[in-house]
Design brief:
Layout lengths: L2 H23 L7 H8 L32 E4 L5 E5 L12 E3 L1
Antiparallel strand pairs: 1-2, 2-3
Protein name: Type II secretion system protein GspG
Organism: Luteolibacter flavescens
InterPro entries: Pilin-like, T2SS_protein-GspG_C
């Protein structure tokens, strides 16, 4: 799925992946996008791998990207809450077409 529907689908999958990580390790993964994906792939204190969903997209830097190819922005609000921001179709972060999820 592409566009905004693809973002909503990604976020739905991410909510389950992050929930599973919290259940296994006691809190959210921390760091930037690539560091979070690395933690999900087993680079965490318990070496637990939380499988990403089929059809996820990574760029050459190992970052999870939206349907337009822009890396998602992760902000750890607390050990149990994560904000995820998508730059939207214009691919420019921090303007009016961004999509923001918690």
């Amino acid at each position: 799925m592409s566009g905004i529907g693809g973002v909503q689908q990604d976020i739905g999958h991410l909510q389950f992946v992050l929930r599973d990580f919290r259940l296994m390790l006691g809190g959210n993964p921390v760091g930037n996008n690539a560091e979070i994906i690395s933690a999900l792939n087993g680079r965490n204190p318990r070496k637990v791998v939380i499988k990403l969903w089929d059809g996820h997209r990574l760029n050459d830097e190992g970052e999870l990207v939206d349907p337009w190819g822009t890396p998602y922005f992760f902000h750890q609000i607390s050990s149990s809450e994560m904000e995820i921001r998508c730059a939207g179709p214009d691919r420019i972060m921090w303007n009016s077409d961004d999509l923001n999820f918690r």
